[in-house]
Amino acid sequence: MRPEPEQYRAWAGEAVGALQRWYQPRTGLWKTAGWWNCANALTAVIQHSQRTGEHRYLYVIETTFGRAQRVNPGFSNEYYDDDGWWALAWIAAFDLTGEVKYLDLARKLFAGMAAGWDDVCGGLWWTRRKNYKNAIPNELFLLIAGRLHQRTTSPGSRGSGYLDWALREWQWFRASGLIGPAGLVNDGLTADCANNGGTAWTYNQGVIIGGLAVLHEITGVGAYLGQADAIAAAALRDLTVPPGILAEPGERRGMGRRGDQAQFKGIFVRNLYELYRHSPRAEYRDFILANATSLWRNSRNRQNQVGLAWTGPFDRADAARQGSALDALNAAVGVSGPGAGSTTRSGGSPGSRLRGIQRDVSSADSASGRVG
Known about the structure:
- The chain has helices at residues 5-20, 35-52, 59-67, 80-97, 100-114, 135-152, 162-176, 202-219, 222-238, 264-278, 282-298, 319-336, 350-354, and strands at 23-24, 29-30, 240-241, 245-246.
- By secondary structure, the protein is mostly helical.
- The longest helix has 18 residues, at 35-52.
């Protein structure tokens, strides 16, 4: 039996409370979580406030902004994808608060990522050591470019080049071969610039569908949604276990362990929700609600901490697992609440959404291993 909408809100409230027990105000980070996982934890906490109107944990935005930079000044390290996760977190912070300093930081992080693009296979490198071209930094680059365009560009203008970067990234990504024959995005490229057949992680499917949804929102071009729907369909077909619950490839082997993979599924569901807002298919809504229900009923301990496998059983608790679960519960709140399926951009209060969100429909004619 499917819970009522208010039940998802209640579960999300319990989940964010459990996540915040790992938060350390002294450092601005979450104990048990890696650097990039903390960026995703911050994003999940912010989106919980956006979906529910609960502001109890808003203090973490400024606390993390002021204190976590002691670890990596400017929130930047050697991994371009890590910089991307923090850029997304600060864009979310701007959307909720209207504080321009958060958007400025995201723009600086994006500029640093852009320096990682070169002609060796094209696209962005994974690290500043330039040892691997892979999917995730490029997907993040596309998504961030689109979101920055929306927040910095006046209607009817191409702005400061963010849309150009987004279109260039998608053109490269589509031609790169990273989307494999099964319709899923593989991990990366070989030295000869071919699909390496690497694992099709759930988050690699999620971030690209989020980026394509943004391109559709900016340009109105339906082909972007068509490609996003195709990738989502492949993921729901090949990256689930009965009864349709999301599972990372080889997930059972990771039970009881720490690792980056614990974060991935929530990122997929977070971005599937963004696709749902533009392509409100019943199968997406049903999938989101089924996963949120399963993880809460089957993979939770008495402290409201959620384990790795969303079908259960509970294995262990850490901030990556919890942040991932919160992403799924936030999405469930979104698809089950008032206005579910609306294509109005999600954000904070009406006053803070505003400052961010602008569209440029004039560009439609132009549209033509440590993991993390």
